[in-house]
Amino acid sequence: MIHKYSLADYQLTIGIPQSVAQKLSLRDEQGNLLTSFSIGGPGENGEGSFLGQIVASRTTNLWETEGDATGSWVHNKNLSRIGTIELQIRQIADEIIELAQLCDIYASIQENVEGLTLTINSSASDESTPMVTGVDCYIQKQADLTLAETAGLLSWTFTCGQVMFYQ
């Protein structure tokens, strides 16, 4: 599980299926098809930003042990890798506004579409290292709208068909 209060050492990349990007006409500033979107990391000035946390978890135990009256036991391995990735961010920036817009657009699609791919990379060193990947992810809960004097906590939950840890 990743549980860190400053996301300056981590970058979240959201992979958008090409068919969805084409259907929604998602384009970057240069007019290219937008098939990925990243937030966090050290930033251009190396100082980092995006205070909050990312929590990736699986919904089931990997191993279970069953015993019986004779004192014997059996270990059962669960092959399910389904889980959730929760983003909690307490900062308003252009990237967060774009993330909120992307989530709103994706959640408004009325037909069945391919899921997103969420990848959390450690950018603490010169090389980006994958930490967690969520495959076939859908928005389970969108961020609440918070209007206040200071930046509120924005929290998105994604349900994932597979959560893979690379620690």
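(ticket continues) Second input and output from the same batch:
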Amino acid sequence: MIFKGYNSLDVNLDSGAVLHLSGLNPMDNWYYESFSPPAAKKGLLKLKHNEDLLKGTGINYKDNWITKFDNIKGWVYIGPKYFSVNDNCHFIEFANYSIAKINNGDLSGIWIKPEFI
């Protein structure tokens, strides 16, 4: 949950593969600033979980993330307010224009470039 909205990583329950980001994230919650997404390798992002998941259920993962928007480049960042990179970080493009930051096996940020209609 991000302030007045929510975001969800939709997962194939059979394979654990993350398919895409969905949800509601009102723009009045966003911080506007210039940034570029990190260089990422295309790959498969998989959910690691210890219990069986049912269709339509979710797991609350992060409550203190924020949303930043670069209105020139069109990228949206969802994650901790302060972004850092270390040797344990991996950046995976798990869907077109959708990048996940994995740090020590945990999701620690998402960049997307949505098409606004």
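Agent notes: The mean pLDDT is 86. The radius of gyration is 14 Å. Closing as not reproducible unless the customer responds.
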